[in-house]
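Standup notes
- HV: blocked on the assembly model, inputs below
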Amino acid sequence: MSDVRVTPELEAAAERAEARRGFVLSLPPYIYLVLFFALPLVLVFVYSFASRSSTGQTVLQDWNLESYRRLFSPLVLEIFVRSFLLALVTTLVCLLVSYPFAYYIATRGPRVRSVLLVLVMIPFWSNFLVRTYAWRVILGSDGLVSQVSQALGGEPIRVLFTNSAVLIGLVYGFLPFMVLPLYAAIERLDWSLVEAARDLYANGWTAFRKVTLPLSMPGVVAGSILVFIPSLGAYVTPAILGGARTVLMGDYIVSQFLAARNWPFGSALSFAIMFVMLLATVVYFRAGAKSL
Amino acid sequence: MASPAVEMVGVSKRFGDVVAVDSLDLTVEDGEFFSLLGPSGCGKTTTLRMIAGFEYPTEGNLRIHGVEMGLKPANERPVNTVFQSYALFPHMTVFDNVAFGLRMKKVAASEIETRVKRVLDQVQLSQRADARPNQLSGGMQQRVALARALVNEPEVLLLDEPLGALDLKLRQNMQYELKDLQARVGITFIYVTHDQEEALTMSDRIGVMNDGRLLQVGNAHDIYEKPESRFVADFIGDINLIEAEITGARSARLSNGVEVGIPEGHPASGSVTLALRPEQLVLGGVEVRKEGKDQLRARVTRRTYFGDVYYYDVDAGLGELLEVKEENRPDVDTFDVGADVTVSWRTESVNLVTG
């Protein structure tokens, strides 16, 4: 019988073959990402330096920084600050609502747990637009909220077309994105650590504060990023539930591309918001890493 | 007289229909190194968790130094636990891990500093006070877990298979260290293990559990030499269990027809089980006849070499093979497979077991 020796050369060759196979297999997603993600992004980047003709046509010459200069006008800054604060509050509200809920799910038995997780995901089965329109009915001047208020002897309330309506809509829409990472983090928790804290004289609340919460920070960070970023650029919810006086970043960018036909400025706005998101992500990760 | 460290009276724990611990009566004296020994699922860990306060008894009383624990939560009990997985807080340094209990008890910062340093010194980890648990080896983590519990000077220290995750060499060293440490600090240790060797070498007393019941409590010698039940005999070490019919106050007949001596204190008739350790049996040539010993003719069916000892399987016509352990010494004869031999033992060595 011939004796097959595993020599270093043979091993290296095997490794190279493995690497080649990996490369070939990963080609389709790479091609997809380059074609449909990177390329459009480059286009947007290029357009943000372009100029406009007198008729509003985008002209790919006379490259300039005019669009970026406009970012610092008071109107844009106001819209931006409003969007930022709204996204921040949305994230905080989502976190406060989701944590106890995720904790509850994660500490149930396996069967109850999967039922609850399905319930969290059921809203995804219907169209987001339809669900947001449903909130219009609830929050309108003769909607459910107003009716309850009147039944209790109060004034009719119209929440629709206010910042509160947008906040409610955003929290509703993005809640699952907070619940799921939190659930994953809490479910992974080593409960003997909590027992150890109790054993070392910590009461239930202190054990939560000193052990459960810090160890579930990865879920808090992931959920916060997943909620904050889409909230900052949200378009549908503000467009349907918000009023004309509460223009947000998402509406504003869309209006630049469609109504104002100012593609260079719209592109610059998009890049500015991406930059802020990137910054927020880095800050969150830093904070998360430090607390661990 | 001081009350015992731990006193359990008629303690049961049921999870739904499953009885984890079945009316347990147990007294652990102050300053004792007590081991709960048994196979996995025998209820030993549940018993420990009830003392710690992680589980509450379904019925029965549990007292620590005479104080009824009832439904007191874990943080209000004067005991600390060394967990099987150590359960060190991964987001805290070694120092903060060890200081956790003292901080919870609102001990002054300066005193915490002194006490944590002293206990880290004791476990030889003062150099690693600022390290995170995941930067330490398994043995070091184990010592941090120990330090974290001991620094609080608990009335009882509970250890849940603390050496299970260590490799053999380290485990043996830690056995001696733990025993020494316990003697030095004088704290009552209750040690849960499924490793009979650990229990035998370290404990003042051992409680053997199976199926939620405490079968026998005694020192290592009693548990090994005088097992009262078939389970205890079988679980601790190797043993030959030989069925016999009682023929008199001091005699019984084996299934191969040979009459042998048995100790007194059994029913007047019926069947008994004789328990004999492999090292209590002696092999000899067929021509030898020893006085004061019981002897069977047998044939060697297997010989296994362990370096310092030989294990023989011999067929004495009893249905089951007998296992014999002989030391590998120049003055002890060795026998080949197929050899005709005699198996003999001192009548006093025979133990009768029930169940």
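- HV (later): unblocked. Chain A is about 75% helix and 0% strand. The mean pLDDT of chain A is 88.
- Next: hand off to the docking folks.
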